[in-house]
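Re: your question from the hallway

Yes, I did run it. Sequences:
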Amino acid sequence: MLVPPGAVVGLEAGETVRAESYGRKAADLARLAALGLPVPQGVALSFECVASLAAGGPMPELPAGLVRDGLLALRPSPEERAWGGPSAMLNLGACARTLALLTERVGVVAALRFHIRGISRFAQMVHGVEPEEVEALIRKHLRAGTEPDEAALRALLADVEALYDDAVGEPWPEDPGEQLEAAARAMALAWRAPTARILRQAKGAPGNAGLGFVVQRLALSLAPGVSGCGLLQLVSGRSGGPEIAGGFTLRSQGKEASTRTYPLTGQGAVETPGQMPLPPLDELAPAAVERLAAAAAQATTEFRDAHLVEFALEAGEPMVIDSVPVRRNGRAAVRIAVDLANAGVIGREEALLRIEPRSLLEHLHPQIDPAAPRDVFGTGLAASPGAATGRLVLSSETAMTAAAQGEPTILARVETGPEDIRGMHAAMGVLTLRGGMTSHAAVIARGIGVPCVVGAGDLRIDLRARTLTSPDGRAYHEGALLTLDGTRGEILAGAPAMIAPELGGAFSELLDWADAVRDLGVRANADTPAEARMARDFRVDGIGLCRTEHMFFDPERLTVMREMILAESEEGRKAALDRLLPMQRADFVELFEIMRGLPVVIRLLDPPLHEFLPQESEDLHALALAMDLPVEQVTARARALREVNPMLGMRGVRLGLVMPEIYEMQARAIFEAAVAVNRDAREPVVPEVMIPLVSANQEVVLAKARIDAVAAAVQAEEDVDLAFRLGVMVETPRAALRAGDLALSAAFLSFGTNDLTQMTYGLSRDDAGRFMREYVNRGVFTEDPFHTLDLEGVGELMLIAAKRGRTKNPGLVLGLCGEHGGDPSSVRFCKVAGFDYVSCSPFRVPIARLAAAQASLLVRDTADSVQ
Amino acid sequence: MLVPPGAVVGLEAGETVRAESYGRKAADLARLAALGLPVPQGVALSFECVASLAAGGPMPELPAGLVRDGLLALRPSPEERAWGGPSAMLNLGACARTLALLTERVGVVAALRFHIRGISRFAQMVHGVEPEEVEALIRKHLRAGTEPDEAALRALLADVEALYDDAVGEPWPEDPGEQLEAAARAMALAWRAPTARILRQAKGAPGNAGLGFVVQRLALSLAPGVSGCGLLQLVSGRSGGPEIAGGFTLRSQGKEASTRTYPLTGQGAVETPGQMPLPPLDELAPAAVERLAAAAAQATTEFRDAHLVEFALEAGEPMVIDSVPVRRNGRAAVRIAVDLANAGVIGREEALLRIEPRSLLEHLHPQIDPAAPRDVFGTGLAASPGAATGRLVLSSETAMTAAAQGEPTILARVETGPEDIRGMHAAMGVLTLRGGMTSHAAVIARGIGVPCVVGAGDLRIDLRARTLTSPDGRAYHEGALLTLDGTRGEILAGAPAMIAPELGGAFSELLDWADAVRDLGVRANADTPAEARMARDFRVDGIGLCRTEHMFFDPERLTVMREMILAESEEGRKAALDRLLPMQRADFVELFEIMRGLPVVIRLLDPPLHEFLPQESEDLHALALAMDLPVEQVTARARALREVNPMLGMRGVRLGLVMPEIYEMQARAIFEAAVAVNRDAREPVVPEVMIPLVSANQEVVLAKARIDAVAAAVQAEEDVDLAFRLGVMVETPRAALRAGDLALSAAFLSFGTNDLTQMTYGLSRDDAGRFMREYVNRGVFTEDPFHTLDLEGVGELMLIAAKRGRTKNPGLVLGLCGEHGGDPSSVRFCKVAGFDYVSCSPFRVPIARLAAAQASLLVRDTADSVQ
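Structure:
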């Protein structure tokens, strides 16, 4: 076999060292060297060369000086750094001549240490000697914590060489070229091992991913004086703000345990109890730190991202070993991208594309400090993000009392119902043992932005003992200090350190840029004036879903609602509805005032009526007493309303057609409110009325006729022109298939992807929690379809509906109003599918704004590349 | 205006009298006349002529003799008889000359009666005189029950003529031509009235449907002697068997109240208490009856269907007034069609096409005699067809005790559970107050062929008082005699007369013909050996759905099943499953033996586990005691398994993947049973294993891997080759959309259209009962989609799936196994969509066989007509 052409190229060759031939590390080092940074002299070996080595091919010839004049480092260089690879081998070339040379340069102790490390590492990596055997020899000759002397090191070296001879069957090869070849071949073979291939394929590497090598002069970081290894970066990985961060370990070769880390500057010092603080490196070697900071700045510009430098000092002289992007959390990522764009290093669009939209959540809610210890005693579904600390309370009343005294609480319930809403408002966090992502607790908590964990089925509540007990038997009494992590779905003991939310600065700057780019509308799901205000603060393009039922959970209204439900006749229902009318109208007036100039989609009543009645028979008794009705009548009505599968029952437009007086009341409230708000002629409101749970066109035709009649009546009574739009919520597969019909009556279709996903999969979100984790872990579902829109099933139905709808009605407005509205890949899908807007809970609006901007950029780029 | 060409044609003109120009009645009368039957002389007037009359056009000239020589009848003749039209007008042409003529022929009394009837009818029809005014005059001059004398009749005639003069403002027109023209114009205008048009359009008439007239010599059926009117047919309308049936009224002109009916033969005599029996007509006028019987036979051959003759006798001389198809019930229709085919009057294929498949249900179950009075005191859903009478029992135990004593019972429960199954077997009929068409009671009852009504929510059961109470307060104590009509969904007091089922004779002959024609397979849904035997009796092509869960409801197995569910660990579950294995295997051995040589699709466990546990806390306590487990453990497990929407929960393949040991046990039982049955090498069984509730292809891949492994293990253990097919039940919209993927792993797809309909509509069948009737009545849904396959939604998903599946796997077998398998229009859809088979409950197999034959004939005819 011959050495392939271009097998070896010097790192000084600059752009010739391409990542796709020599690997990313080789290419980056060549770029750093070209910047004039002190990169140790060396060469890159091509993928082809390494593959040939693995196949038994010859080692190419390296520059003679490189091999003869000192020790070497052999580093792997795959095409992408993330794909991993074998460990680097340092200290290659140990032989009598280099020992003498090194002794001259760094003294005999350091020289011996290089040699011993070189031989033992080689024995392990190339010949499979057990690390324990080497360690036993080290223990025999050296004492931990003391500086070794020459005699001990010479004895150790002799024993290590004997071990080598013994294990390998031949003496230590004195020829550096032979050592290098053997090491390179071993690493080349390791890259080909099946396990290694599987591992990197899991990280996205192709089956035939290549490996290159970098062979460099070794930095003599074990030398006396200010020698060692470290990292330096110019921004904080936690805030993204400017700060010299990193660390330095004296006389080391990279990361070594049991070595103390020197801070780089006085600001970076960390006190460790019981130990003298180490001086900062900029006191020991100020010029080196200055040079390295400049190097990090150069690398940042060169690589167009905040980069750190991995460096070595050789008696105070800095060398750049490598440079990689700074590790950062979500908040830091935003600050860094915005700062880079403002510094002109990257463009604003690139800044937008660099941020994972979901990471913006970290800005919106308090988070538990990632560095804080976590005493988790229970887990459930992460139903509403953010973290909160407070005293445990087991009833809504206690939560309200505590809130009145300014005491923060965590409300824990088996499950919540309408009667808990005020308690949920009063608490800092809500925990339920039952229920899924669309349970009452989850929906309400997300709506009001309270952290919430639901379905923590392993926990037990004992209302007699007033305790919350963990599966391992730890019992917390009411009043115990707990922390709820709604982002992760965990319940923690105590009060770990928190990081406050931060919505200004870089965060808001980035979103301004996003709004300038995006052309997909972002609306909010907001049910109450309070949520609408929150949505307006998040700068939405309107309300995409106002679920009117949540307006009825207020205690006073709930009472009237229950009177309506328990009424024996249409007249009785109408009487109760007449009392609800002014309340609903007042809600809408407030909502419309807040959302002036923006569209507001109001969904007519959707849930089955039994959701408004208590579940337990005691509560039904109490209700009967309060309403002055026979207990039998109340329980009979509750029983009659009970459903086997409430999700698939008498709700939505079915209720609207069977008891038309309900929708008529709601339509009247909407129209009267619109008339009232529009009187002053400032930015008029055009309400959008949405009919839920449609499965047949005739449902829309009949409901529309009644709503139009109410609109005509209000117009006549008020003597005004009333503009409104009527639309359909597409939640059933059948509505999607029949969208062509629906589009003839509807001005807009809004996809309720929560229910549409449930029905397309035949999977209740409330019940799926039991196995969803296992399903996703085992790859049955690639993703939880309630989090990420299922493009293959639900998505196809949406595409069918969009196409059929727009064919029949080209002006049809298309929106998405499920929780997927805040999921970036779903937002991208909506953009590609030609939708007009997405709507999501207020706290996910920033995610959707950024995702929409990214989608616009990506679609444009694809379009460009197609042309 | 001119008289249109061809306005008048004589009935003797035969084929010239086309129904599309002169109306059906005219055409039929011409055909009867051409047969040589004694049809009174007359002419037909064309649609065009009648339309012209309505528009004020001239009356065409009629044969002079016809108008001058006697009284006339003017009869409407629309294109289809079903479209209705104005009433006929008899006795036209009353004038001095005809009075004299008639007096000569039939005597003065009969002549006067013709005249009086003619004038008063004309006054009412043409001039709107109130019938009460005429009746007052009749009451003044005649005494009911006595024969009028000439003097009284003359006085009456004078008063009637005076009334006419008074009301119309001019004297009675003596000119018969003038009378005829006025009557014809009035009838032509009546046909154009908007109400009349709407009425006939509701019956399928086009907007411009034409009306023709027949003008005939009047049969003088009021004459002395054996004169009168009657009907005669040669087959029974109830059995379809040969029998001279009909009746005759003396001296009448068609149907006249308060006239006694003479039987046609001695066999047809009906005794009326307190009255002397009338002599049969074949004693009074034997030649006439013989002639008329021959006429009916001729008409039957001529019109290729069992026809009756409407006749008049003029002093013993028969005349044929009309001939129409014999009215018949479903059973008679089959017998008639088969007899006609056997007599060579029609072909077998035509016989097949003449029977509405659904009407075959009448053959399969006892029915309440349609003639019996019905004392209905409650209604619910018609969950399982047939009628049964028995003593009311309110518990399954009582039903079993009564059955042991040979006492038939009707079991009434609020709802049923697994513990009621033996009681349901023991009862003759089952009634539940709760539940829908897929409730436990409904499914089990249909399976075992027991009449059942569910969801009778207006009834109340009081277990203390042991009563069943109707909404109007009627209370029936346990032991009361009740009748359940599962075909109509009614509960009746007492024991009305029944008609027994009849499966032999014409019924089975017709189905043999159907089998010879059809090319769509018909399988049965059968869960137990008993049902499989029943299916085999109905001559199925295999079992399309064996729901294995029903095998676990037997008390002994239920106990082991519950142990499995309550086990805390996989080992505990396996131990219980090991005990279930031999029981399941034995079931399958029996099933396979019964179904030798035919395919058997076995669906792996589908329902959620909580369906196997009791609902009530008392029952859970008892269960804990019986199992020797802590009550808390049992109730906690039951609570943990409870689901918000069980239809969309942890069931089907989800359960199969999370607890794989269940499917593994079932697969082993299936394979071991197949091996055992196939040992003797007679007609080997190839089991078809079906995975339920799939929504993602990976579910199939994972379940298949485990099932294949079990098959391999059984093959190795038994040292045999084991053939089986694995398939997927398509019940979720997503499975339909992803059928292309599924077809790569599956040998067959079977559409579970019950669940597919539920999910496509987002509509729980159990909860839909509450509003389905209203929805269908108001036309929101054109049909109940659980009865008739929704072609626009569910059907489209099936077509998508069929196309995608067959594209990827051209050999893919496609079946339908929901209740729609027994619905004729759904069967037709499956044929057109290229399916291989439908599968339905055993009792619907005959319907499906006939519907499949019809579909083949219709598809072939369409194909012929396309070529």
